[in-house]
Design brief:
Helix content: 25-40%
Shape: globular
Strand content: 15-25%
Order of helices and strands: EEEHHEHHHEEHEEEEEEHHEE
Number of strands: 14
Structural class: alpha+beta
Largest sheet: 7 strands, antiparallel
Radius of gyration: 20 Å
Number of helices: 8
Distance between the termini: 41 Å
Length: 334
């Protein structure tokens, strides 16, 4: 597995309804003991980054069991979705172009990805991995053209991009075009957040704020108030541009500022599958949705969609979204 190239704080603030829960500050988790109660903490690597899980619970043994279950679920899903592991199901699929007897989670998430591809008119597309490979390879070369890959190379990569060319059935997944590859980085963190939330709910928690790269708020805080989450400031990612309240809702943010491809920071990991453009329309997009899977996928897609097109989807699904515009201004939908 590759060493983590960035630090991500992921966490859980959770307990039974009898315990007062903590407010949440997105992007960095800070646990403050209440009345002598110390959080149970796990630190390690998850989803290719340093990670931390914190859980406050009056029964420390129960907290440790829940943390262990959450970490086990993370590890299990990494063996399915991770591009950092050569032995993951997704890595094998990309290497072979087909995969027999695929894991149910991979089939489910690729099906979900197709649904969001259709919903967004193809703007969300998990088969953009050839574009990442093209841009990353181009800018790794000494003296690379700062304007990006040559048009002919871009056309070659785009010929490998099509969500409709991923053939799914319960017995196998295969790519209908040679050289295709999938990345689920635009949706998998949301899916994992939803799965860990389900695990905690089955474990008896009815109030929790879960962050596995994206955020889901289960129920409300013990004081009856909704959870609070921060919207990142693209100019100062460790600071907050604002706060939103969450109750049985998820929040996801996409922004190219986090992972630029070139030294100048002009090109990002957010690709438009229609033309290969790696420069999103907005500096950041945050989406609040009923599931973290939906919030993650749509924040990715909205990064390359006109506001009017995003507004239609937000209205049809009852979503809220926040956009940081190129000039630093802000727009809100819903």
């Amino acid at each position: 597995m590759k060493l983590p190239s960035r630090r991500r704080f992921i966490g859980i603030a959770a307990a039974s309804s009898a315990l007062g829960l903590l407010p949440w500050r997105a992007l960095a988790f800070s646990a403050r003991p209440q009345a002598g109660l110390e959080p149970v903490v796990w630190r390690g690597v998850a989803l290719g980054a340093d990670a931390e899980l914190h859980l406050l619970h009056p029964d420390r043994d129960a907290a440790r069991r829940l943390i262990d279950s959450a970490v086990d679920e993370l590890r299990r899903l990494e063996t399915v979705f991770s591009l950092y592991r050569d032995d993951s199901a997704l890595a094998v699929l990309n290497r072979q172009g087909h995969l027999n007897d695929p894991p149910a989670d991979l089939l489910r998430l690729l099906s979900e990805s197709r649904r969001f591809s259709v919903l967004t008119g193809g703007v969300f597309d998990p088969t953009v991995q050839p574009l990442w490979q093209l841009y990353a390879g181009h800018f790794s070369q000494p003296g690379a053209d700062p304007d990006g890959p040559p048009p002919a190379r871009l056309r070659e990569a785009l010929a490998k991009v099509s969500h409709a060319a991923v053939v799914l059935d319960s017995r196998a997944i295969r790519y209908a075009r040679p050289g295709m590859a999938v990345t689920l980085n635009g949706i998998a963190q949301g899916y994992i957040t939803d799965r860990v939330t389900d695990l905690l709910r089955r474990g008896g928690l009815d109030r929790a704020l879960v962050d596995m790269g994206e955020i889901y708020a289960m129920g409300e805080r013990s004081d009856g108030q909704p959870w609070r989450a921060g919207l990142a400031d693209p100019d100062h990612p460790d600071a907050l541009a604002g706060q939103v309240t969450l109750r049985d809702r998820a929040l996801a943010t996409s922004g190219g500022y986090g992972t630029p491809i070139d030294a100048a920071g002009r090109y990002t990991h957010l690709f438009d599958p229609r033309d290969g453009n790696a420069r999103p329309r907005y500096r950041s997009v945050s989406v609040m949705a009923p599931t973290a899977t939906a919030a993650d996928a749509l924040s990715t897609a909205f990064s390359h969609m006109p506001l009017e097109d995003a507004k239609k989807i937000a209205r049809s699904l009852g979503l809220r979204a926040w956009f940081t515009l190129p000039d630093g201004g802000r727009a809100r939908l819903g």
